[in-house]
Design brief:
seven-stranded mixed beta sheet; single chain; globular; alpha/beta
Length: about 300
């Protein structure tokens, strides 16, 4: 039994790959275009032509696929979960079966030896992954080392809600360690989502079905896999925006754009940084140190 399966069997890790397999059953052209749009908007570029792209924790493989379709000259995808690796390979088989410029491997962002064998990349992408690694700050450090001078780091990290985040961590532990826990937690949480959404829509005079029909506009994602990902997503760590900004500023990065979670604050904060070693090669204009130049609801 490999390390990943051992951790899953002991209730120490969620099977993200099994969840991504569900997502592939609903993946279509519309969702792929939404993934492309989200990449273009955050990176502020219409094409990735001439850019190399590293997808840390590729999951379903959707954003590696988006990078390929946006013209990246080289895409390297890796994930710790073997089933996630299989999902990414499935998307390559469907859309780019002969593409030598897209490589896919099983690997861990915590494995310094593995990362040392990789080249540097113009764009390093890791959305909602590093806080599930089991050592988030080491994962953040390792991700930064893979960025080419003047390149960009695009990450998403769960927002720190203080005590509420600790409660959610306990919920996730129960979910992963017991079939009974999963059977109890899942319907309760789903019911809460439906009731809350209905109440908000009625107060705002909105169609209560539109939030579910339009959910695919959130980076091309799907509601049920996202809910299960949230409930089961363990290991689980969080960080405040200022902590992330300070961490990377100390490592020679400048924050150029961010979207911060609002409302319940339970979601991901997104960040795009530029590596300052060679500012003349920056892919995006730099923002003032420590600032959050774009703030949106996520």
């Amino acid at each position: 039994m490999n390390a990943h399966m051992q951790e899953v069997s002991e209730g120490q890790r969620y099977e993200f790959g099994k969840n991504w397999q569900r997502f592939l059953s609903v993946l279509n052209e519309e969702r792929i275009r939404e993934a492309e749009r989200s990449l273009r908007e955050m990176l502020d570029m219409n094409t990735l032509a001439g850019k190399s792209f590293l997808d840390i924790g590729s999951g379903s493989g959707l954003f590696s696929l988006a990078a390929m379709r946006l013209g990246a000259c080289r895409v390297h995808s890796f994930d710790y979960d073997p089933q996630s690796v299989a999902c990414t390979k499935e998307l390559r088989h469907r859309y780019f079966p002969r593409a030598e410029r897209w490589t896919i491997e099983e690997g861990s962002v915590l494995d310094d030896d593995y990362l040392s064998r990789l080249e540097k990349f113009d764009i390093v992408y890791s959305w909602g992954v590093l806080h599930h690694s089991g050592d988030m700050w080491l994962a953040l450090e390792h991700a930064s080392r893979q960025v080419q001078a003047g390149g960009n780091l695009f990450i998403a990290i769960y927002n720190d809600q203080g005590r509420t985040s600790q409660v959610w961590k306990a919920v996730k532990k129960i979910y992963n360690r017991s079939l009974i826990g999963r059977a109890l937690i899942t319907p309760i949480f789903m019911s809460c989502i439906l009731v809350r959404g209905l109440a908000l829509d009625l107060v705002g005079w909105k169609n209560p079905f539109s939030r579910y029909v339009e959910y695919k506009k959130r980076r091309g994602m799907s509601l049920i896999p996202d809910v299960l990902d949230w409930l089961g997503g363990y290991p689980f760590e969080v960080a405040k925006p200022e902590e992330i900004a300070s961490f990377y500023r100390e490592r020679g990065f400048t924050l150029v754009v961010s979207t911060l979670s609002t409302g319940s604050g339970r979601g991901n904060n997104q960040y795009v940084f530029v590596k300052n070693t060679a500012p003349e090669r920056s892919l995006l204009p730099q923002a003032p140190e420590g600032s959050f130049p774009v703030v949106q609801t996520s």
